[in-house]
Amino acid sequence: MNPFTWDAPFAAVYAGLFVIVTLRASATYILGRGVAAGVQHSRFAERMQGARYQQAVNLVSRYGAPVVSLCFLTVGFPPIVLLATGALRMPLRRFIPALAVGGALWALLYSTVGFVGFELIAMAYRFSPPLTIGVLVAVVAAIVGHAYYRHRSAKRTAAIVDVPTDAPAE
Asked: Model pTM?
């Protein structure tokens, strides 16, 4: 769904994207609000106790509504922040303005420069499919390699911290 190919004026594309993100984010907030009480007995328990979720809870608890607005400028983090916001029962008088600002930023980003990247990849593919595929594979490999490296270094750090000492207890 590339907005550049939509047969509509920019204002309509922007409004459509704003409605989409607002509905999706509101549904995630409502889900977080409803699931918070009974999460211990559901399949969401692991997700709502993971490190990224706890990071989102800490950010929302500390900074409040600005985190909601700014999370829309990240990739993959908005659903976690919105779940945490709902679970923390952020008042609607704070959530709705934060959602409006974040949704407006997201819609502007995606209706203007967000899909330029897709167009550039398509142009590169028309120019040289093997080169484009090779570069995309290299980028994905670099991302996976970086994630694996971070995972391994975190495990090493945890192993070092968990090593028992022979020192007597006081």
From this structure: 0.63
